[in-house]
Specification:
alpha/beta; elongated; single chain
């Protein structure tokens, strides 16, 4: 018969592995793009702009909203849009965390979130756009290592 002393190292190893796996936290990010002024606008709808102001003031389509109202408003606005893009502009005095919480609440209801920089946001006109690659994960024309393009048939 094998004594319990022989299994003590294995039990200790198992306990260490269990604690390590249970305490592992996966970090997640928010996928955003940068807004641009395209050369041609086409027949696109008005851009959906969420403005984050001081003291938590939020405006969607220039109408005041609360953080809890954003999902319903975005669901209504994006229902029939082909391109579900929302632009986010933060006031200069607003903390980064306030802008991120607005993006976090909104990101489930849009395909793309684009940051509206002061240079693009202050120019004239309502024509806004984002650069879209062939793939959603494409950044500056380069695919990340985990994404492999599908080969095209040459016939």
């Amino acid at each position: 018969m094998i004594g319990p002393a022989r299994f003590a190292p294995f039990a200790g190893l198992f306990l260490i592995l269990a604690v390590t796996l249970l305490s592992y936290q996966r970090s997640e990010g928010i996928f955003v793009k940068i807004a641009i002024r395209p050369d041609f606008c086409g027949d696109d709808d008005r851009p959906v702009i969420l403005r984050v102001g001081p003291q938590g003031a939020l405006k969607l389509y220039r109408q005041p909203v609360t953080l809890n109202q954003i999902p319903d408003r975005l669901r209504e606005i994006m229902r029939y849009r082909a391109h579900r893009v929302m632009y986010v502009a933060g006031d200069l005095e607003v903390a980064y965390g306030e802008v991120l919480s607005a993006i976090d609440v909104s990101s489930a209801y849009v395909d793309y979130v684009a940051i509206l920089t002061p240079a693009v946001g202050n120019s004239e006109g309502d024509c806004l756009g984002i650069k879209l690659g062939q793939f959603r994960d494409e950044v500056d024309g380069q695919l990340p290592a985990h994404v492999q393009p599908v080969p095209r048939w040459l016939w």
